[in-house]
Amino acid sequence: MATYNHEDQDSIDGIKTWWDKFGTAITVVLTALLVTIGGTQAWKYYQQQQAQQAADLYVLLQQVQLSNDPARINDAAHLLTEGFPSSGYAPRAAFVAAEADVQAGNNKRAIQNLQWIIDNAKETAMHDLARLRIAGILLDEEKYDEALRLMSTPHDATFAGLYLDRKGDILAASKKIAEARLSYQAAIDKLSKNNNYYNIVQMKLDALGNSD
């Protein structure tokens, strides 16, 4: 049996007294902390697994895309938009599906896919790009007023040149040449001269000439 001197015994008695007073509370706190740490690790693992599954599905979508079958492409994209809507892959999958729909002449479903991006994507740039593409579809359908309303939606400054260019396209198609000219010029002012798209917009502006 171990023996202690008086100083050791006093220390032990002090620790026992302290533990009797605070031990239960400390045990509860430590248990809660361990559960929290374990829960955090489990959540991180879950998120990693979700991200990997979404990535794998996007690779599958890219493979299906080679089939040029809009139905199959939409089915593959649907796995991401429904199963992993908060992932960065989901809006990109919707863009792929929308492109396939446009090529197949299914503008209605293309707009639905693009609208999903506007409603669900976390990245605001995705919203801006989706509106731009919807406006392009509406332009082809000669729904000029709807397209113009979309191009009047607030957007990031990095999209200013593209929005003004698309607005110019819509105005030119609706025979509002003077307004189209102003929009193209404004687009040119927003675009960098080093951007290849700058020259395209300049060509559109030149093609309008000085006529009204």
Strand content: under 5%
- Major sheet details: none
N to C succession of SSEs? HHHHHHHHH
Q: Count helical runs.
A: 9
Number of strands: 0
Radius of gyration: 30 Å
Which structural class is indicated by helix and strand composition? mainly alpha
Q: How far apart are the termini?
A: 109 Å
What are the segments in which pLDDT stays under 50 over at least 5 consecutive residues? none
Shape: elongated
Structural commentary:
The model has no long low-confidence stretch (mean pLDDT 85). The chain has helices spanning 6-65, 70-83, 89-103, 107-120, 124-140, 144-151, 160-173, 177-190, 196-208. 80% of the residues lie in helices and 0% in strands. It is mainly α. The chain is built from nine helices and no strands. α1 (6-65) packs antiparallel against α2.
In short, what is this structure?
The chain is mostly helical. Helix content is 80%, strand content 0%.
Mind sketching the topology for me?
Layout: H1 6-65, H2 70-83, H3 89-103, H4 107-120, H5 124-140, H6 144-151, H7 160-173, H8 177-190, H9 196-208
Observed structural traits:
212 residues, mainly alpha, elongated
